[in-house]
Design a protein that fits this description.
The protein is built from four helices and six strands. With 181 residues, the protein is of the alpha/beta class.
Length: 181
């Protein structure tokens, strides 16, 4: 993933002040003053400001649901690319086919607890494994982890997996941006 902190790269507001964070997709660059505000532009009904327990719970649920959809999409793309390259043939076991097609909304048991096939990444969500659940996390160079824990990890892990670019100004600080004096 490419995180640029060069002030010349950071998109700006209409008045010329830089956004604290931005995400460059193939279609557009989206800027915001917090990672939560950035997600509110990407996820319908996502609460940019989480002032109540209900807001926090809704934000958590939406991040998980939308990142699980992204994981399913990225996994399908990886399977297509591997098949087109001749890496994934008709000789793939049923177990491997299931691993590659199972919805990412829950724990996926990886045989032997390891996935080393870098030509065919396995896309998983961190929150389906320890320490967020009782399930041990698999290991291996072939795993692409997406992390819906908070707005920053959502954006940065998705950007790393999808080859997107993230911009952070000096004002960016995790999920929020410090108040300006």
């Amino acid at each position: 993933m490419d995180i640029s902190t060069d002030p010349r790269d950071i998109p700006t507001h209409e008045d010329g002040t830089p956004y604290a964070v931005a995400l460059a997709t193939p279609d557009a660059t989206i800027g915001a003053d917090t990672y939560d505000e950035l997600l509110a532009q990407l996820i319908p009904d996502y609460p940019a400001a989480q002032t109540t327990e209900e807001d926090v719970a809704r934000a958590d649920a939406l991040r998980f649901a939308y990142l699980a959809q992204e994981a399913d999409h990225l996994q399908a793309m990886a399977v297509e690319q591997a098949a087109a390259a001749g890496f994934l043939g008709s000789d793939a076991t049923d177990e491997v086919k299931w691993l590659l097609s199972a919805p990412r909304t829950g724990h996926i048991a990886v045989p032997g607890g390891s996935w080393e096939i870098t030509q065919l990444p396995l896309v998983l969500l961190t929150t389906n494994y320890e320490p967020f659940s009782a399930e041990p996390a698999p290991v291996g160079a072939g795993i692409l982890w997406l992390d819906p824990t908070d707005a920053r990890t959502y954006i940065t892990s998705l950007a790393a997996a999808a080859g997107l670019r993230v911009f952070e100004s000096a004002r960016a600080d995790g999920d929020s941006v410090p108040e300006q004096d």
